[in-house]
Amino acid sequence: MRTERIYQTNTYCKNCSANIVGISQKDGFDIVIPDKSPFFPEGGGQPADTGIIKSGNREFNITYVYDEEQEGAVFHVTDAPAGTFKEGDEVELTLDWDARFINMQRHCGEHMLSGAFHNLYSGINRGFHIGNGYIAIDIECDGRILTAAEVAAAENMVNAAIRANLPVDVTYFDSYEESKIRPVRKDVPHDGRVSVVTIGDLDAPYDCIACCGTHPATSSEVGLLAVYRFEPNKGNTRIIFDCGKPALDKLKADYNTAYAVSNSLSTSIDELPRKLELQAEHEAGLKAQLASLTAYYKEKEAEAMQASIDEKRVGGEHVYNFTDEVLNTNDLLKLGFSLAAKLRPGELLLMTDSNTATVLLYSDGSALKCGDIVKAEAASFNGRGGGRPDNARAAFADIADARAFAEHLANAY
User: Fold this and answer.
1) Which region, left, alpha or beta, applies to residue 124 given φ > 0 means left and ψ of -120 to 50 means alpha?
2) What is the pLDDT of residue 136?
3) Contacts of 311 (CB under 8 A, 6+ apart)
4) Contacts of 135 (CB under 8 A, 6+ apart)
5) C-beta neighbour count of 355 within 10 angstroms
6) What is the mean pLDDT of residues 286-314?
7) What's the predicted TM-score (pTM) here?
């Protein structure tokens, strides 16, 4: 059973009439095999086409297309309930053309960018993926990571070739050996029929590679290619980019974002990087100043709290309850440990962080065991927590519960 693959001879065919020559079901839906189809089955890194299947006045979606052998049947997964179609039915197949053309642009753009890295730096494409809103390729370049200047040079080379309106030729050969007459940049041994995509002059091409995907007739139809970012990936350089209208839309959106940010900072887009650099320097200075002030505050708080503890000891108290509205929990935790080092057996230190409704408990871990106290008492005040004999913490839904818990402990212990 075989499906005539119209996309191999006419990538611009959007619809056709066909007869169903095979049918199966999966998950309650029909999967049909037409005798011919413009739909591309997923392969070579390119997603499958989607679209519509019509029979009379009935219309259903084609949600996925795949094959099991390159020259055999093409399976069209539909959302038609199982039993809707039967062998011999005449149907009309219509592509989601916008999605197909974007994939054509992207696939051709990927060839051109991979070719640029090969021509400029002898880079080898070790992986290709068309994702949702991006394309990714992994370029191997003698074990080194490409530089920003090298990536930019390849991007510029591609866009110059796009503007040159080079022809894109797809030639089919009966065997891999026959295809070797073309100067392909990468050998891909393959059984059966082989298709070779050549961009530019057939004898001295801009790029030439074996590929089963769909491509536009000229390089200019790619529109543009924009590299978004690049990063190391397992010894290769992963390039994230896109082509055509999706790339244009993203560049416009990024520009609008940059424009809005520059306006909010009362500067121009050109001056935005320097403005952000200055802002980061200012922020670093503020953080350093804050750290210094925090250290000073902690030192003074520690002195004041220790003086209060000493005074309460004289009065016979052994539970010391403090609340702080300035320090965060981590700073308060460190302050608590510094005070806890001077606690005596039977003494309990409580420190409440009013910003997070957290109560920290400290003792010497002998007579009063902090973790056990939290487990026994916190739930009664809508809190939860735990810890060790010498320190623990309890978190509460609001500050009122946290304070009530601390006051209860101050009276009960």
Assistant:
1) beta
2) 95
3) none
4) 106, 109, 110, 128, 129, 240, 241, 242, 243
5) 14
6) 93
7) 0.75
| Element (DSSP H or E) covering residue 77 | strand 74-81
Half-sphere exposure of 401 (CA within 13 A, CB side): 16
Taking only the tens place, the pLDDT of each residue in 204-217 is 899 999 988 999 99
User: What is residue 180's predicted lDDT score, i.e. its pLDDT?
Assistant: 82
Cα–Cα dist 62/255, whole Å:
36
Give 55's strand partners: 58
Orientation of helix 399-412 relative to helix 370-377, angle to 10°: 120
Whether 191 shows a pLDDT value over 80: the answer reads no
| Dihedrals phi, psi of 178, to nearest 5 degrees | -65, -35
Q: Which residues pair with 175 in a beta bridge?
A: none
Q: 183 Cβ partners below 8 Å, 6+ apart?
A: 205, 208
Evaluate whether 323 touches 356 at the Cβ level (below 8 Å). Answer: no
Q: Can you tell me the distance from the alpha carbon of 404 to that of 410, in angstroms, rounded to the nearest whole number?
A: 10
Q: Which residues pair with 391 in a beta bridge?
A: 362
Q: d(Cα 220, Cα 217) in Å, to the nearest integer?
A: 9
